[in-house]
Amino acid sequence: MARISAASVVVVGSMNVDLIAAVKRLPAAGETVSASSLEKRFGGKGANQALAAARHGAQVTLIGCLGDDPDGRDYRNHLRREGINCSSVNTVKGGTGNAFIAVDAKGENQIIVIAGANAALTAPALKMQRSRIEVAKALLVQLEVPLETVVEAIKLANGREVPVVLNPSPLQPDFPWGEVSVSVLIVNSGEAKQLFEAEADDLADRVDEWKNWLIQKKIRTLIITRGEKSTLVLNESGLKKVATHKVKAVDTVGAGDTFAGVFTTHLAEGNTLMECVRWANVAGALATLKVGAQEGIPHRGDVQSAMNA
């Protein structure tokens, strides 16, 4: 069992039922490849991150929408079994969100997402959850629900100085950078290149330039995950690198979500930035050891054991 912390984390985000196809290699554009198996699992970035935080001991409230279909009912029961507060998860008419995922022999993946009920999480509906956000120790958001809803959640958090952790995936070109404040932005190297139009591997040679970008976008701290390479952490104090935990990955789906959920839990607990990243690095690595976005998310004790090994 994860130890229960004082960390109250609110996650605003998506819930999807994943259909995962195992392939030898990922298809190129216009190409058809054969799959050796197809599995149905729970996923969605919002729920994945909420579950990672909950398994790490946080008191998690998830704000989102499920369909009134059997998948929605099964998903709600699943979240409750994981100890996640689902009182802010609305049931709406229609289907629950889906994701179609291809995973190759190296554990790399391609993902297609269908919003379904996730699209029903509107800004007015989000405002009804104002009190939950304003008393949280941290707010964690992604971009698989409507953009205006995410922005409204961040504004509510900003109004009460609640730390905001944003994992802007999938990237949205219309995100109002500079109009809202982000405490921590978590991206992978590909997302960092799209967002800042520069290579993350070259950051060390352009620290001042990247710092100016953060100021312009009202981002306090930038974290860039780079797979097996060290994680980069940049803020006004400068650039730091945090070593990753070496494993032989089976499936990378959900690793980034695990990183975000565990990082946010430690941030909400009041731990130092570097300590938050160290925990998240190890948790993200361990999450790649099993197939599925949620099946591999480790509990706090597993992460602690790996860190002490």
Would you kindly provide a written description of the structure presented here, covering whatever features stand out?
Strands 5-4-1-8-9-10-11-12-13 form a nine-stranded mixed beta sheet, with helices on both faces. A hairpin with a 2-residue loop joins strand 11 and strand 12. It is built from ten helices and 13 strands. The protein has a single domain, classed as UDP-N-acetylmuramoyl-L-alanine:D-glutamate ligase, CATH 3.40.1190.20. With 309 residues, it is an alpha/beta fold. It comes from Prosthecobacter fusiformis.
Secondary-structure map:
Blueprint: E1 8-12, E2 16-23, E3 35-43, H1 45-55, E4 59-67, H2 70-81, E5 89-92, E6 97-103, E7 109-114, H3 123-127, H4 130-134, E8 138-141, H5 147-159, E9 164-166, E10 182-188, H6 189-196, H7 207-217, E11 219-226, E12 229-235, E13 238-242, H8 255-269, H9 273-286, H10 300-308
Parallel strand pairs: 1-4, 1-8, 2-6, 4-5, 8-9, 9-10, 10-11
Antiparallel strand pairs: 2-3, 6-7, 11-12, 12-13
Helix pairs in contact: 1-8, 8-9, 9-10
